[in-house]
Write a structure and sequence with these properties.
There is one protein chain. The protein has 12 helices and 10 strands. With 315 residues, the protein is of the alpha/beta class. The protein has one domain: NADP-dependent oxidoreductase domain (TIM Barrel, Alpha-Beta Barrel), CATH 3.20.20.100.
Length: 315
């Protein structure tokens, strides 16, 4: 088992490699341990447990003319053993830019493409079915794939209209999995009810060490119903980073092979047995490599998870 000291040495070497040439980012040994995979319950397909989200900074950079960093982020994701890329039409130019860069790098077929649909104009608003289909067709074009791995109804938008469209497209063989997402507490009850009555392949939810509401009902229900869980906001946007700013990582984090705060937070999320994949967003290649490190080595057991919760609460 790689030691924390050795991991830090490897990470430092990777940082130097990045400064010299982004293509050498993973050559310094960050793949010393295999990246864990987990099965999607409905299909049995194995996917790496750490992926890449494209909201936040990724979306901001995608709006600019200089997307070189995003090219290196996608390369780092795939060369580091990852594949899951989560995006949405509402994330600005993220879909288009990611699709273009993946094609340029020859990575299109190596990525698990997850996107979303939602043309409803706010909570409770109706969605136009033709507009929803057009949005989905546009996603296929931007991502340059005849079959997409996952499309989810974003923010539970007009499920009566948009979920049947996804079922229709899945039945036609154009998508492999379908699901729904929400990161809004007022929608948790609706999500739970939907999980009980509808056959879903995935849900996308918010979950973090200081945001554990999902542990009460949603995550146990996902295990019971055989629904894969994609986790968003594992850092609480910037909340957790602000909490640990200037604080040293505890030495006992080495007991579950966490060498950085990012890995500490991600390993907490991944240690929950209902979680299938976590997709933190980043526009920086070295952060992508660090995030992938959370999917290598050991994960904390129940006792360590409780210690992690108490430690963060004490800061």
């Amino acid at each position: 088992m790689i030691s924390r000291r050795d991991y830090l040495k490897l990470s430092l070497a990777a940082g130097v490699a990045l400064a010299l040439d982004p293509r050498r980012l993973l050559a310094a040994g960050d793949q010393a341990l295999p990246l864990m995979t987990r099965a999607i319950p409905s299909s049995g397909q194995q996917i790496p447990v750490v992926g890449l989200g494209s909201s936040a900074t990724f979306a901001q950079v995608a709006r600019s003319e200089d997307v070189a960093a995003l090219r290196d982020v996608l390369r780092a994701l795939v060369e580091g053993g990852g594949s899951v890329f989560d995006t949405a039409p509402s994330y600005g130019a993220s879909e288009q830019v990611a699709g273009d860069l993946a094609a340029e790098l020859g990575l299109t077929g190596r990525i698990f493409w997850a996107t979303k649909v939602n043309v409803a104009r706010g909570p409770g608003a109706a969605a136009d079915a033709d507009e929803a289909r057009a949005q989905i067709d546009a996603s296929f074009g931007k991502l340059r794939k005849p079959v997409l791995d996952l499309i989810q109804v974003h923010n539970l938008g007009d499920l009566a209209t948009q979920l049947p469209i996804l079922r229709e497209i899945k039945d036609a063989g154009r998508i492999r999995h379908l699901g729904v997402t929400t990161t809004s507490a007022p929608q948790y009850e609706e999500l739970e009810a939907l999980m009980r009555r509808e056959p879903l392949d995935f849900i996308g939810i918010d979950y973090a060490i200081d945001n554990r509401v999902m542990e009460e009902r949603i995550l146990p229900l996902a295990r019971e119903r055989g629904i894969a869980v994609m986790v968003y906001l594992p850092f609480g946007r910037t909340r957790l980073w602000e909490k640990v700013r200037g604080k040293d990582l505890p030495d006992w984090a080495a007991e579950f092979d966490a060498a950085t705060w990012g890995q500490f937070f991600l390993k907490f999320v991944l240690a929950h047995p209902a979680v299938t994949v976590v997709t933190p967003a980043t526009s920086r290649p070295h952060h992508m490599v660090d995030n992938l490190g959370a999917g290598r080595g050991r994960l904390p057991d129940a006792a360590l998870r409780q210690r992690m919760i108490e430690h963060i609460a004490s800061l």
